[in-house]
Amino acid sequence: MTYTRIATGDALTVLRRIPGVSLHSCVTSPPYWQVRDYGVDGQIGMEPTHQEYVERLCLVFDEVWRALRDDGTCWVVLGDTYSKNGGTAKSLALIPSRFAIAMTDRGWILRNAVIWHKPNVIPTSVKDRFTIDYEFIFFFTKQRTYYFDRQVEKSLCPGGKHVPKRPGSKGESVNRTINRTYFARNIVTGEFRNKRCVWTIPVARCMDPHFAVYPENLIETPIMAGCPEFGTVIDPFCGVGTTGIVCERLKRSFLGIELCAKYVEIAKKRIREARDAALSPPRRHSGYAIKQVKGAQS
After folding, report:
1. How confident is the model at residue 170, as a pLDDT?
2. Theoretical Cys-Cys bridge with 193: which of 126, 142, 147, 155, CB 3.0 to 4.6 Å?
3. Quick count: other Cβ atoms within 10 Å of Cβ 154?
4. Which pLDDT does position 174 carry in this prediction?
5. What number of other Cβ atoms are within 10 A of residue 291's Cβ?
6. Assigned domain for 58 exists
7. Which range of residues forms the domain containing residue 189?
């Protein structure tokens, strides 16, 4: 059996009430620095300096560390922003890098820095730099051994017996010197390989009044890889409940924390609708079943 619970309040305060070493995974995306004012007292993201912002985030993840099991995992989606004041105005603030370094300084092990490539990123009017179409997904653990269910993807270069020749230093064609097992090292079959660290996933659209909703399929992989079935995932910045929707579909329990009461009500509604859609029988049309995707919104 799984359960879903969402608490209204400050992430740090609520986390301190959660028993230690009790959760399997944390999957979240905190408010980005100096990007959006949600108009709620106590919010994270509007600190005057990036040092204060990173410190406040790390205090929250200190409590996540305490609440996670020793074999737990922590996944954080985080984007960068540009400095607006002082001598560093117009410079990237390097928030993701500063955060990752601060977390490792506190004892977290950074296993991967995944690139979320957004092919449908919203264009900007800026003309003196390139458009940013990616964010980071940091994969942290508490210790060197932890729960991890290996995920795979379709291979773009399946193994084979024939190794192509390459040009030599003088233009002549020479045989490659290559280990026979090279092509098979990261391949489960001839069609799949160990999942890579650049994930191309379109930006999601949400009809509810929240401007920073990540797509459901972005966090499917972290939840499946980092939390066992019927385990518990926490999202201390749950917004309108996207993490909870995916947990519902993947048979994981969910604990959400959100400072804005309006978003808590929206999250509960979205998760309830996702649960109802998953329980509804397939509709039939002209004698053929129309498959309903679990978690889909009408």
Report:
1. 52
2. 155
3. 9
4. 46
5. 8
6. yes
7. 152-194
**With b meaning 16 or more CB within 10 Å and e meaning fewer, what string describes 205-229?**
ebeeebebbbbbebbbbbbbbbbee
Residue 172 lies in a domain: yes
Asked if residue 225 and residue 186 are part of one domain, the reply reads no
Which tokens is 96 given?
Answer: 């993701």
Q: Token digits for 91?
A: 């410079």
Residues in the chain: 298
Q: What is the pLDDT of residues 231-287, one digit of tens each?
A: 999 999 999 999 999 999 999 999 999 999 999 999 999 999 998 887 776 544 333
Are residue 88 and residue 131 in the same domain, yes or no? Answer: yes
When divided into structural domains, the chain yields a total of: 2
Distances (CA, A) of 270 to 21, 59, 207, 210, 252: 29, 29, 11, 13, 16
Asked whether residue 296 is assigned to any structural domain, the reply reads no
Rounded distance between C-alpha atoms, residue 262 and residue 281, angstroms:
31
> CA 202, 101, 254 angle in degrees (round to 5)?
50
**Tens-digit pLDDT profile for residues 86-143:** 888 999 999 999 999 999 999 999 999 999 999 999 888 899 999 999 999 999 999 9
CATH number at residue 119: 3.40.50.150
